[in-house]
Each structure stands twice: as structure tokens, then as C-alpha cells.
Amino acid sequence: MNLKQIEIISEAKGIKIKDLADKAEVAFSGLYRAIKENSIKASTLERIAEILEVPISVFFGLGSEIEKEIIDLKKENINQKNYITTLETYLEQNIEHIKQQKDLIDILVEEKKRINLYMESFEKIANANPELKNNIGVKEVVKFLDDSPEHKAILKELYKDDPAGFEEYQNKVIDIINNSKIE
């Protein structure tokens, strides 16, 4: 009989000897002494084998089989730790990505406010100075901005949740272009 296997199997399964003794309903000191002296009651050994989920025969010279199982358990434990580490890294990267997206959204919101202020200012100036509406330069600047891929991309992102606001913006641009006259 080899009761040292109790310690080896317990450690591999992450069970403390004290907890094993509690589950087997024996005193910790009694179990410790039994392992050390390599002597134990058959009924106690059966309970321990059940708790550790191993056949009782592992305590009677089939050490190589149990050692293989222990090695497999340790490998599985390492694989699980690696998987958890990978998940933690992924989550940290996701959190950082979300922070970056939030920062980009904040920038786009500010850009939307800035563009709206420019349009409002431009409208006020154009309304206060009707001759500007007739200026071909104004028409060309508005057309250039309206046709710019970068400007369109910014507008698309800024107004993605506000189709009515985008339509209003486009109507203002169309109004400025249509009301300009070539002199």
C-alpha cells in the first residue's frame, strides 16, 4: 500500500489534506499519521478514494497510472491558466478599444458642433449680406466642401444617428448653391 498517493492526488486536484479529512469525516491529525505510517482503515481509504474520484487500487501499487493522470491534470490546469490569461488580455484590449471609441465619439460630437456653428455663422453672414449669396466664390467653397470625401465621411459619421439633422444640413448647402449666381 502506498498512502503517499493521497497527498499527491489531493495536490493535483487542488484539495487540501485538511479539507479531505473533513470530507472523509476523519481527524486531520489521524489522516496525516495514517499517510506517514502507511496504515489506514479500509473504510476510510474507500471514502478517500471516492472523494478523490480514483479507484482504490491506486493506493496498492498502480502508481504509474495515477502519475500519468496527475500529469494530465497538471497539463489541463496549465492549459486552463493559459486560456484564462488569454481571455484577460483580450478583455483588457477590448476595454482599451472601447475607451478609444468613446474618445473618437467625443471628438466627432465636438466636430459636429463645430460644423454646425460654421454653417450657422455662414448662414447669418449670408443672410446679412445678400451679395455674398450671389458670389461665385461662396458657391465654389460650399461645393468643394460638399464634394470632399473627407468632409462627407465626417458628416456621415456625425449625422449617423440624426438623419433629420443631415437632411437639414444638405438643404442648407443646396440652398446656398442654388441661390448663388455667376456674375
Write a structural description.
The protein has 183 residues and is mostly helical. The chain is 80% helix and 0% strand. It has nine helices and no strands. It has helices at 4-12, 17-24, 28-37, 42-52, 63-128, 130-133, 136-147, 149-158, 163-179. α1 (4-12) packs parallel to α5 (63-128) and α7 packs antiparallel against α9 (163-179). The radius of gyration is 38 Å and the shape is rod-shaped. The mean pLDDT is 80.
Strand and helix map with partners:
Layout: H1 4-12, H2 17-24, H3 28-37, H4 42-52, H5 63-128, H6 130-133, H7 136-147, H8 149-158, H9 163-179
Helix pairs in contact: 1-5, 2-3, 2-4, 5-8, 7-9
Quick summary:
This protein has about 180 residues and is mainly alpha-helical.
Number of helix segments?
9
Structural class: mainly alpha
Q: What global shape is seen?
A: rod-shaped
Helix/strand order: HHHHHHHHH
The span between the termini is: 109 Å
Task: Kindly list the characteristics that best describe this protein.
80% helix, single chain, mainly alpha, 183 residues
